[in-house]
């Protein structure tokens, strides 16, 4: 790797977006579990 090569780190906005999408995915998974429990209790 040359000293002139750009860093492999993604830009700040991209990292923020990835974190938000990760949190949204976890939230959606939890919502699905809760929905399945509620439907199972009906």
Automatic annotation (TrEMBL):
It comes from the Bacteria. It holds the Pfam family MmpB. The chain crosses the membrane at residues 20-41. The keyword Membrane applies. Keywords: Membrane, Transmembrane, Transmembrane helix. This is MYXO-CTERM domain-containing protein. It comes from Streptomyces griseoaurantiacus.
